Amino acid sequence: MSTSLAVIKYGGHAMDQADLAEAFARDLAQLSQEHFRAVLVHGGGPQINALLTRLNLTSRFVNGLRVTDDLTMEAVEMVLAGSVNKAVVASLAAQSVRACGLSGRDGGLLKAEIKDPELGRVGKITSVDASLLNCLLAQDFVPVVAPIAQGPDYRALNVNADTAAGALAGALQAQYFVLISDVPGVLSATGELLPRLDRNAIDTLIQQGVITGGMIPKVQACLFALEQGAGKALILDGRSPSSLLRFLKKGEALGTVIEP
Length: 260
What we know:
Carbamate kinase, 260 residues
């Protein structure tokens, strides 16, 4: 039987709520037994905010992106490549999934440049070297990737997790690229689910102010992944029980399918 690869952006309630996280890990364990390979990319915004508060550091955002000075970057890397990454690995290990935690700095996986000097150490991905991921996948590991990239000076850069996941899905030419969301998918101006969107529709909805905020990098990551060779892209409602399993095994697209 052939093996399919899914790159999954994992975060929000699906990661933070214990019951949903356990259900997700069970589903991934079942998929692993049924010839699905997976790469997870996770976020960790609430956990970063909590640590910055404890350190008396103030968070500031520009166009939805965290302004990241040197001290903030240290905290971001501590959380994403440390506590959050290892918590995800542990939750998967509890369901007998062979997970391996790493960040985009390992093995030159993600390289980036400064996106905008106003944002500080926020990175724009310039290249992906998936060699390390391919080695892990060949040995039936599930790589769990923290979205930290290596800058030109070999220092860490903070990268949007949706963007990092899209770049990996494209580089690996994954059959499936899934962004797990806390909302039903992309919604219309009247709040109705839009089951399918292509680039023209997305551009129009962004110009109209219907797609805004954190949904913009999600749809853009989907389009990029598809352009680079990924098979299918979906913004998935992570609050629905076993939504990932139902999509990958049964084709139930519980969210918005993004088309080229």
